[in-house]
Write a structure and sequence with these properties.
By secondary structure, this protein is mostly helical. Helix content is 48%, strand content 4%. Bound molecules: heme C (HEC).
Amino acid sequence: MTHPLSASRALCLLGLSLTVLTARADADVKRPDVDTAALPAIAPGWADLNPLRGNADAARIGGTIFNQTCARCHGENANGMRSPAPDLRRIGMACQRVKDPALRQRCLSDADHFFVKSVRYGKQKFGIVHMPPWDGVLEPSLVWSLRSFVETAPRN
Ligand code: HEC
């Protein structure tokens, strides 16, 4: 039988380590220092499809944002090397093989939604923060720039 004291001590230790993990994931959730002057104006709110898809300035600025805010978990330039988090370049890749243009747009829209939702609300499992939320920190034009960047980042 477990001694009640050691059980509560174990719980306390578990609580402590969860706090440490959470604190680490939540650290540095701040707006990156980036010049967005080259970004075209977009309609307010969250669009259904990336309004900055195919925009070279957005992809370039997205790369700067990425390396300041996401690379520590998702790898430098999203290269997926030795990173503990998923390779983001594959999100929506399968859409390119969809022949029907309307269906392809729907496929891309699903992928965009998933990307935006992941960034805005982060990733939590069993109360542990695997990825912190950026809602209210990164505005739509920054998140869409990130999306444009990961879509065009070279694959190794
Ligand atoms: C503290 C580490 C950390 C940071 C910083 C981080 N992420 Fe994540 N991210 C993760 C982890 C871990 C997962 C996988 C978690 C899961 O699926 O439960 C993930 C998942 C995702 C997913 C879903 C990927 C998939 O295939 O399931 C997207 C999209 C994403 N992150 C985008 C970003 C972007 C963009 C940034 C920068 C704004 C960012 N993340 C910053 C750790 C991080």
